[in-house]
Amino acid sequence: MTLRFDLVAEQLASVIAEYREAARGLDAAAEAAAEAMRSWSADPEGGNQRIAAAMEGTAQPYALAADEPPADAFDAPPAEPWTVVAADGSSINPDRFAPVPCWVVNVGRVALPYGVAGEPLLESRPTVGPTPVGSAASDGDEPEEALPLRWGINLLRDVMELEAVADLACSRVAFGPVVALLDGTLLPWDLDAPQIPQSVRDHLRDRTARALDALRAAGPAVSLGAYISASRAADVVNSLRALGVEPGAPLAADAVLFVRLLGSGQRSALFRARSERMRRVEQQFPAHEVCFFYVRIDDDLARVELPAWAATKERVERLHRALLEQSRYCGGYPRALQEAHELAVISSREREQFSRLLEAESTRAGFVGILAGKQRSKRRRVV
Amino acid sequence: MTVLEEAPPLRIVAASLRAFDCSYSRYVEDPPPLGALVAVREGQFPVFGVVVNVESGPEDPTRPLQPLGEPGQSAADVMRAHPHIRQLLRTRVRVVACGYAADGMPRPLLPPLPPPLLACVEPATVEEIRMLTAGGRFLSLLLAAPECDDAVIGAAIRAAGATFGEDGRTFLVEAGKELARLLRAEPARLTTILRMAV
């Protein structure tokens, strides 16, 4: 054992004590924030204008009230027959010690019909790259430099998850309403990451836009939500500060506020997400402005992002109820997302197997990797 | 997916000369029952065997099945309410070999080779069962298998006997005589099996 738990335990006590001190006054701060929410609800447009003014020149994320009073809480309607589809991904980044640079993206795809036609689907689809231009794994029209190599695998994975969800939703909507779920944010944040070549970002932006367009074109029977469990976002708290809540208040995240405002199973009002980074990414998708709400599932306060076009009453109610039903028997997390994760995850053993397979295949093709000293010492841990 | 849906094929996932393990790609409610005679018609020799165990459970042992369901819901109701479950479960069948076919003729002898992995396992036909079990000679292989307890042998005799129609009594008498010969040193066991065989 290299981690000395006797020393760790000694230091933990002071960390917890410090946190307790910082959390003092949380209830009073939350009550002040709730009061500010109620004022905002009384005049949403006026509140929005004050928030928009405060946003000028800052990089912080804010929330603007959408069409629902910000302080309201909503119960879910009864469940209906529908199909829940979800995708999640896992990846192996190129190993700089490998004889041939190569990545893997594994996407778990799930479709679970509840009272509607169609077979349940639980499958994973791996893609290995860089893919040659025009191959089945690429879409054939991208320039070679647009194919990600070292950078951009995470972005590619996010895009492939969205594409999988769009594909599943479009293929199932003929059987009845569909609830499409993603894990994480709706828009891939790395689209504005400067370390990823612009050509790669452009290519993946186009693929993202196509997937979102397909979901939109599938019509009002498709609800879409990107689910962020235990969200630490502070958009609403920042907005409340713009509305006069004391800046020093110990409200670190929206969850601290909404866990007090929402009963079990309730969702918050819809908000529009606003930030400089959001603007940079969102302006690439003018037809897909991001909204969000919070939903309380057991002790979890999850943030659910969705495009503004999917923020209609019918679609949001369907999404809300489906999230509760999905989480009911799954430890407070949507079942379809959990199964997609289980199908996507690449274990450390599989990573090692892939590494050996790549090495063997590369050697067979005449490429011999030069094993670096550090790598060699890790493989053979002698005393 | 409903229980009425056609089951996927039952395939061999591990095999030796004396026994083989089979699995469905999901949970099925109607696998071949205890004592059923099954056939593997792929490979050099068609191989026959008797079902000695059937078990169902999670594919991934680290993800145990929760006791899902509301009061009053049947298993089929729960399966419908949780459509992912069936695919995360597996039904597995253990078979002890009791014969093989040479020149189209089933023989109650140990097969020269194990059946091929991933081969399909199907119910043996009435004709195959009659040819394999007539005279009770298949029982010696079953009695020699540690997995074949008295209940398995009794069930195998009942399953075989059911295929003989009006000649079922004759089959039972012959099988009983063969058992008496094989178990002459174990009269108590013989009695137990005979009671289970009718």
Range of helix content of chain B: 25-40%
Structural class designation of chain A:
alpha+beta
Main beta sheet of chain B: strand number and arrangement?
6 strands, antiparallel, barrel
In CATH, what is the class of the largest domain in chain A? Alpha Beta
Strand order of the largest sheet of chain A: 1-9-10-11-7-6-3-4-5
Portion in helices of chain A: 40-55%
Shape of chain A: globular
Secondary-structure element order of chain B, N to C: EEEEHHEEEHHHHH
Q: In percent terms, what proportion of residues of chain A is strand?
A: 15-25%
Shape of chain B: globular
The strands making up the biggest β-sheet of chain B line up spatially as: 1-2-5-4-3-7
Tell me what the structure shows.
The complex is a heterodimer of chains A (383) and B (198). With 383 residues, chain A is of the alpha+beta class. Chain A has two domains: 74-344, archaeoglobus fulgidus dsm 4304 fold, CATH 3.30.2170; 348-379, no CATH class. In chain A, 42% of the residues lie in helices and 19% in strands. Chain A contains twelve helices and eleven strands. Chain A has helices at residues 5-23, 26-42, 44-55, 153-172, 198-217, 235-242, 254-261, 276-282, 313-328, 335-344, 348-364, 373-379, and strands spanning 62-65, 73-74, 82-92, 103-114, 121-129, 178-183, 222-228, 267-268, 271-274, 290-297, 300-307. In chain A, strand 10 and strand 11 (300-307) form a beta hairpin. Mean pLDDT of chain A is 89; it is low at 133-138 and 142-146. With 198 residues, chain B is α+β, with helices and mostly antiparallel strands. Chain B has one domain (10-197). Helix content of chain B is 32%, strand content 24%. Chain B contains seven helices and seven strands. Chain B has a six-stranded antiparallel barrel with strand order 1-2-5-4-3-7. In chain B, helix 5 (150-161) packs across helix 7 and helix 6 (168-182) packs antiparallel against helix 7. The N and C termini of chain B lie far apart (37 Å). The chains are: A alpha+beta (383), B alpha+beta (198). The A-B interface holds A 110, 112-115, 119-120, 122, 329, 335-336, 339, 342 and B 1, 63, 66, 68, 80-84, 86-88.
